[in-house]
Amino acid sequence: MAAQVLLADDERQRLVDQYAEIAALAGGLAHEIRNPLSTISLNLELLEEDVAGGDSARERRMLRKLQILQRECAHLETILEEFLRFARVGELELVESDLNELVQEFIDFYRAEADAGGIEISPHLDADLPRVRLDRTLFRQAISNLARNAQQAMPKGGLLELQTSVRDGWVELALIDNGVGMNEQTLAGLFNMFFSTKPGGTGLGLPTVKRIVVAHGGRVTVDSAPGRGTRFTIALPPVPANSFANR
After folding, report:
1. Other CB atoms within 10 Å distance of the CB of residue 7
2. Quick check: 159 and 122 in contact, CB under 8 A?
3. Angstrom distance (rounded) from CA 179 to CA 158
4. CA–CA distance, 57 with 120 (Å, rounded to integer)
5. Closest C-alpha among 90, 108, 241 to residue 171
6. How far is CA 75 from CA 42, 47, 71, 137, 203, in A?
7. Helix, strand, coil abundance in the chain, percent, nearest 5
8. What is the mean pLDDT of each run of 10 residues along the chain (247 residues)?
9. Hey, which of 42, 142, 159, 241 would disulfide with 212, CB 3.0 to 4.6 Å?
């Protein structure tokens, strides 16, 4: 594949510090936005009820505008929830884990949605994979974000491969799709907050993936080119062979 974005190891401390500041602000931001947003949404519902039974052209126009505003309120709520998930990735509850087991659990959960979208899932899991320390809930969220990103890149269906392996002392998980791929301009902004090429996208899914992986002491890369699909690779440090912690 033609282009690559790599999260360098020397960026980690800067990102951890940056994320800590974001997390500190998130609670206050959520309160300041959610309360008035809920009030606005409630009043829009009441107004919609007032005009819903009207037959005049004016009332029908008012109803359509109110419904548009309601959809925008719901979209803002989605952005807020995505941002809070992004900001809450702080201290992890790390447990020594079998990455293959977590991947298989995700596949079992995701298969029905993949089938509905015409997506074939092809797992290739290394049977001799070393164990890793994971916050299982957060790491599954990262896998889910990547799988749904791949699904959006294959609107007519396609193939999604999930591969685990060991390379250069790292435990790797790769998600590979045969979708539309990305150009270099898109790759350059891929992990930036609020960057999105999708209509209605929050631009927080992939930054959240990066944040989760960095918090695990790992790194994430992406290889892609237009018309040639995309490969996301997460690399994690293995549990030392003589470690008995969290067993």
Report:
1. 18
2. yes
3. 7
4. 48
5. 241
6. 15, 19, 6, 25, 13
7. 50, 20, 30
8. 47 60 63 77 84 81 86 75 63 87 93 93 95 90 91 94 96 96 86 66 76 89 93 94 54
9. 142
